[in-house]
Structure prediction request, 344 residues.
Amino acid sequence: MEGVIDDITRECLTGLGGYDWCVTEFVRVTHVKLPPRVFKRICPELNEASPTYTARTRHDTPVALQLLGADPAALGINASVAARMGAPSVDINFGCPAKTVNRHDGGAALLRSPDRVFRAVEGVRDALKGSGVPVTAKIRLGFNDRRLALACAQAAQAGGATQLVVHGRTKQEGYRPPAHWEWIGKIQSELTIPVVANGDIWDMHCYWRARSLSGCRDVMLGRAALADPFLAARIKHWQATGELLPETDWTQRAQVLLAHAERCSHLPDKVMVPLLKQWMNMMRQSNNAEAEMRFQAIKRHKGRAEFFSGLVAGTALTLPPSLLTSVTHMPELASAPQPETTLA
Prediction:
């Protein structure tokens, strides 16, 4: 998710509906008080913050500011900065499995010690007292194994977290399926604060299974938010009406990619095209046959003309003038295989 979830993507996705809140990429905290520009770079929505306005997307979805670090005092100092700048809540990342992050004592590395989880959350909670800004946390099921999963979750709650997101894998499991939603259920049953299930919620069938096995009312979408930009809206619609909306087809997905590209049309091709390829890579990870076929067809294109031509070829979509000034060739694409139905 690094590099692709920014304010432009948040605006794009929350505009499609279904999201109650979203969270930034993490701000790395060491032992210093960071200047406001660091927070604004990660969360430009803070630019309009005031005593009566907190960070939100243009579609009025609250944007939580996420911190990553291990020093309780430094986390607290920087959480106070974020709160003064208009963060509606401050989230602490105990879930990042990246080796570089873990080597520097951040993310999932702290899950080896429930006491360190407690002290980190407590440090932020104490710093935010009187501000009205809550502290939340995200964890995995452990570092090497799951033996401390419940203890770490209880430590986060005891430290003052008002909500806990649980990714259903250990650090060692990375993103390899499956996510252990039943283990999230063990945590949910022991805590009194809201627990949010996360991991491998790619479609409505996955959502129902995650909800059933975890007992969680709410879920967080990560890679799946990019793989199917309309999944959150479909979940919300089902919750409200009991009606199952059709799967998102390629034309709808391509429309979202084009809309996102229009927002970043000022970027050079060497920046824009890799970002969109990263998004398309998420789409193919959800076993979407057409996304896989189109990604393979255009993954080596470096210029926007070829890339966007391949994106819309065979659809009724047209390319906005802001994206392309001329396209001399629209490549022919083989017929996409029909995806299997995965919903009951």
About this structure: Confidence is low (pLDDT under 50) at residues 326-344. Residues 269-285 form the longest helix (17 residues). The longest strand covers residues 22-28.
